[in-house]
Every structure is written in C-alpha cells, then in structure tokens.
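ARCHIVE CARD
CATEGORY: sequence design from structure
SOURCE FIELD: tokenized fold
FIELD CONTENT:
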C-alpha cells in the first residue's frame, strides 16, 4: 500500500511523501479497511505546516477523514462485517489501507455514497454540535453565519432546516446566493451587507439567537451586530487570518457571549454513545441526499501534491478528494 506520511512540518513538497508500507492484519477487536476516498480539509493543511493546535508525533500518516470498506475483521468484532463501509475516527486516512480498533470506526449504512461518506467526520458534526451546544434554540429562531458556502456552512443549512431553524447566510461572492437558496437557506447576502441595519428586515423583525463565525475580522463583527442580547457568537475558523475586534458595548450593553468551538474537543468531551447517535443521524441525511457537499475535484493518490495545491485555493467550488483506490 501507499500512504501519505509526514516526516516534518513545513512546505508539503519537502515534508510529505508517499511511502510504501505493508498493510497490518487485524488483531482481536480490530478491522482492516481498504480505503476508498479521503478529503482534504484546512486542518490537514495546517498540520502539514505545523500550525495546527494539535500535531502528530512524526513520522505520521495524516488525513483527518475518509471512508473505507472492511477487508478483514479480527476476533470478537461484531459491529462490522467484511464488505461494510466505515469511517475511521482516528487520523491517518491518506493511505490505501489501515488497521484500527473496530470501536474507533463509524459503521455506515448500505447505499450511502462513498464520496459523500468520506466527508462525514469533520464538517457535518461541527455544524450539528454548534447548532446544539451553545444555545437553547427553538423552531423559528434565526442562526446567522459567514462562510456559508464552506463545508460547515453547507452542513449548517440543512441541519438547521431539519430542526425548524432559519438561517441568514453571508457569502463573499454574489454568484453563490441562488445556489445556497436552492440548498434551503432562508436568506443569503454578501459580506457588504451591514447586518446592524439590514438584519431585522432580513430576519422578519427578529435578531439571530446564534452566530457561527469562520472568518474573523470585520465579518465576525458584522455577525455580532445581528445577534439578540445575550446570544452566543461562536468562532470555529479564521479564514481571514484577522482577529476578532469586539467593541466594549457588545459585552457591556448587549451581553453577547463570545465562545470557540474545536471539533477535537467535542470528540474528547462527548460520550461514545452520543457520538454514535449523531453520526447515525448524519449518515441518514447523507444517504437520502438531504446533506451533500459539492466536490470540486478528485485526484488519485499519486497526485497528492497537486491535490493539496488545489485544496489551498480560495475559489474552489467544493471539497477536494483523494481517490485511494488507485495509486
């Protein structure tokens, strides 16, 4: 098998290599997956650079999410059978085969699109957790978000709709407006829209009860100005690489709560049974087509460095995937 193994931190072409490795047979309680596809996320790029909040011991096979088909099971495994699809919970998915504990996988239902299943581990649970973890939202409440065309943003829209919530979505490019409305967004505006003045009209006289920020800088402040007093403003990304600039009045007079979300913390703090429940719900939404992420391009594993360059561009129309079935 070939695997993308990180030997240092820095520029990908200097520190990331495709290494030939021998697949490990599964021991008791383990499964071996023949990997089908894996996604490239911003966190993967940050890990390669050495700038992420948690870095692996080197050398390490990287890749935070992917999907595989069970090729072999060890003694005592009852949750998976040969031929089943599963998503590994632990990092290391940019390789053609991997062996890990069965309990560290997410069994996936028959009929699910493997390409979409390869993107189940990062963006969908981030969206689901933020919609449930920071405010007691009720049907009819508004959620405001920037980077609404991102993987998380596109997951927020259908998950919020399934909960009866309404979304006000901010994007950079006007050509994205109709696309997100077709996805189920209630309102879509561009970054130039001043939500302090336009927000109430856009939200039928209401204010948002939750803001989700993946950009930072002035975009994050714009979201804050759309919030009802006492509401949470949750940061989970920093695409602009600009810090939050919070006027004192938003804290003193409006009582807004500025918080952060990191998916790895959610995994660490959430009981396995609850994680399984969430992923079963998300898998069902992916299988029935309610939850889908556009795929910008798919590269064979041998073209890993070209795939990384494409994933780093800002004007992508969706995710970049690695096809792991061919070297």
């Amino acid at each position: 098998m070939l695997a993308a193994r990180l030997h240092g931190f820095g520029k990908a072409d200097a520190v990331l290599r495709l290494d030939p490795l021998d697949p490990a047979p599964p021991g008791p309680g383990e499964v071996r997956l023949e990997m089908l596809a894996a996604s490239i996320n911003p966190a993967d790029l940050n890990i390669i650079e050495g700038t992420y909040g948690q870095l692996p011991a080197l050398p390490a096979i990287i890749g935070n999410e992917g999907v595989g088909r069970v090729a072999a099971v060890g003694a005592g495994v009852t949750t998976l059978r040969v031929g089943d699809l599963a998503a590994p919970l632990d990092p290391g998915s940019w390789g053609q085969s991997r062996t890990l504990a069965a309990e560290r996988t997410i069994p996936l239902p028959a009929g699910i699109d493997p390409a979409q299943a390869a993107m189940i581990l990062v963006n969908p649970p981030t969206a689901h957790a933020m919609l449930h973890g920071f405010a007691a939202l009720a049907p009819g409440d508004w959620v405001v978000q920037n980077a609404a065309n991102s993987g998380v943003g596109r997951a927020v829209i259908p998950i919020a709709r399934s909960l009866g919530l309404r979304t006000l979505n901010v994007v950079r490019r006007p050509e994205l407006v109709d696309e997100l409305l077709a996805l189920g967004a209630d309102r879509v505006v561009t970054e130039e829209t001043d939500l302090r003045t336009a927000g109430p009209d856009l939200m039928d006289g209401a204010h948002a009860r939750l803001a989700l920020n993946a950009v930072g800088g002035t975009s994050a402040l714009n979201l804050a100005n759309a919030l009802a007093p006492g509401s949470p403003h949750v940061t989970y990304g920093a695409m602009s690489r600009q810090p939050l600039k919070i006027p004192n009045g938003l804290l003193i007079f409006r009582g807004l709560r500025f918080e952060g979300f990191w998916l790895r913390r959610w995994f660490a703090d959430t009981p396995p049974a609850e994680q399984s429940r969430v992923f079963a719900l998300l898998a069902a939404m992916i299988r029935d087509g309610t939850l889908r992420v556009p795929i910008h391009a798919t590269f064979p594993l041998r073209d890993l460095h070209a795939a990384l360059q494409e994933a780093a561009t800002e004007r992508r129309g969706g995710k970049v995937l690695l096809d792991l079935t061919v070297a």
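CARD ANNOTATION: The chain has twelve helices and 16 strands. The longest helix spans residues 272-287.
SHELF: design records, drawer C
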